Every structure is written in C-alpha cells, then in structure tokens.
Amino acid sequence: MDVKLVARGETGELLMSGDLDTRTARDADALFSQMADRFTNIILNMKELEYVSSAGLRSIRNLYVKLHQKGGKLTLTNVNDNVMEVFEMTGLAGLLNIRN
C-alpha cells in the first residue's frame, strides 16, 4: 500500500493505492492514528486501492472511531466495486460516509 497526503486546513486527504491487507494494516494503523491526531476530518481517496482485507477493514473502522470521538468525520471516495462489496458484506457501508 502506498499513501500520499494532501492537506487542506482541518481536512487531510489520503490518496491510497495498492492493497490494504494483513501485511500493510499495521503501517496503516500508525499512519491513520497520526493523521487523526493532526486533522479533524479525513478523506480516504481509494481510487487506486485494489483490495481491502479484514485487517484493513479494522484499520478503517479504528480511524472512523477515533475521528468520531473527537467530533470529526471520515469520508471515503472513489471506492471500487470490489472494495465496496466488502464494505457492504460487513455492514461498514451503512456506518461509513462513502461518496463516489
């Protein structure tokens, strides 16, 4: 997984590519925690994210919880069909703010 940051005031947009899986989830957790401390709102732009495993889902859920606890917002954009199917099957689609 590769991530690039675009900062926009209180909002940080993370441009994600590759896979968010067991191999990359630990690094994602650390990055997401840093970004949640820095920004009130975060956009995960998943245009080039190809795959999300259960470990990746946990990382995204943890980010959502951390932002929600401090009154912030997590938005997911450009979610491909395969990743969206995983969100729908796990029920996260109903919890997360997803825009395409």
Characterise the protein shown here.
The chain has a 5-stranded mixed sheet. By secondary structure, the chain is an alpha/beta fold. It has helices at residues 22-38, 54-69, 81-90, 92-95; strands spanning 2-8, 11-20, 41-52, 73-77, 97-99. It starts with a strand and ends with a strand. The radius of gyration is 12 Å and the shape is globular. It contains 4 helices and 5 strands; from the N terminus they run ββαβαβααβ. Helices cover 47% and strands 37% of the residues.
Quick rundown:
By secondary structure, the protein is α/β, with parallel strands linked by helices. The protein contains 4 helices and 5 strands, in the order ββαβαβααβ.
Coarse structural class:
alpha/beta
Share of β-strand residues: 35-45%
Element pattern in H and E: EEHEHEHHE
Total strand count, please? Answer: 5
* Spans where pLDDT lies below 50 across 5 or more residues: none
Number of helical stretches of at least 4 residues = 4
- Quaternary organization: single chain
